[in-house]
Amino acid sequence: MLRMSIPPTLTRETISVDFLFVPETLEKDLLARAQPRMLSGAKVPVASAEDTVLLKLLRFDDQDRVDIRAIASEQRLDRRYLFRMAKRLRVLTRLQAIGLR
After folding, report:
1. With contact defined as beta carbons under 8 Å apart, do 86 and 57 qualify?
2. Residue 85, Cα to own-chain centre: how many angstroms?
3. Residue 96 DSSP SS3
4. CB contact burial 61-72 (16+ within 10 A = b; e otherwise)
């Protein structure tokens, strides 16, 4: 992950922007599984709930933990895919630490 700050000379206040570099293993599946959604009049691919969880497992800060629990409580997750990819990405222990089984 890379965090950059845009200084207040270009904006009213400093803006922090996080860039998460996704392993190629996840990138291909994430794009293949993304569903097109209309946002502001344009069709854009949106990551599945499972892939969003995987992205959050890669960063895994306090807010990511909260988000993962919320997603798991609201969505019916494909746990087979989630666990297979978490293992491949070497974040299975993080997934298990959240309490997803």
Report:
1. yes
2. 13
3. helix
4. eeebbeebeebb
42-91 pLDDT, tens digit per residue, is 999 999 999 999 999 998 999 999 999 999 999 999 999 999 999 999 99
**Other CB atoms within 10 Å distance of the CB of residue 82:** 21
Domain count across the chain: 1
Which structural domain range is residue 46 located in? 22-98
* 65 located within any domain: yes
- Residue 13 counted as domain residue: no
Question: What pTM value is reported for the model?
Answer: 0.78
Asked if residue 17 belongs to a domain, the reply is no
